[in-house]
# Entry
Amino acid sequence: MERLLRHGTIWCLLAMALVGCTRQDGPAASSSALAATPKTANTPAPADTPALPAPTAALPAPTATPTGPLAPELSGGGAWLNSPPLTLEGLRGKIVLVQFWTYGCYNCRNTLPYVQGWWNAYRDQGLVIIGVHTPEFASEHELARVQQATERLGVTWPVVQDNEWAIWRAYQNRYWPRLYLVDHDGRVIYNHIGEGAYEETARRIEQALDAAKAAEGTRAASSQ
# Structure
């Protein structure tokens, strides 16, 4: 029996390391640390929230939707770092990678070098990365700590604080880290949960950039 319990514990730890952290029950009412234990989603999404690609039940795989729903706006957040406030409406024509993360999550930290690589490689081609910093613990609410963490971790792309979980809820998200790729028309066309799938994500970014360039060429030709 003890051996079975040990094996069960090991498999649980491996699954958490691969998938990342999960939660959907919102910020705590007090200043105490939010519970680190993943919880089952029990908060219904707002009625006017568009249905986004749902995560899979086990090890989540990247989800691609050629013509997905409109991405929820980045409203309800707090302070912005590395950029003035941005809106998806104002970024129409660009490709936007919305990155849910928090600096205390080790899965999130493991993805940062890859996100930085995409930022370096594709921002001059029309990619905008927006890090949505949704805190898990009380200390992660503090702007000074978030600023120090972004500097220490080399996060140079725009980051918005989501202390009240407004953007998190709008996206019906339950995971740290999670990526949503938004095309030039403002639609969610791909999302990925947890670590991994870096080559696939880069390929999707490149495809979206190519599609945006083609659409711009079509608009330019039709206006002549």
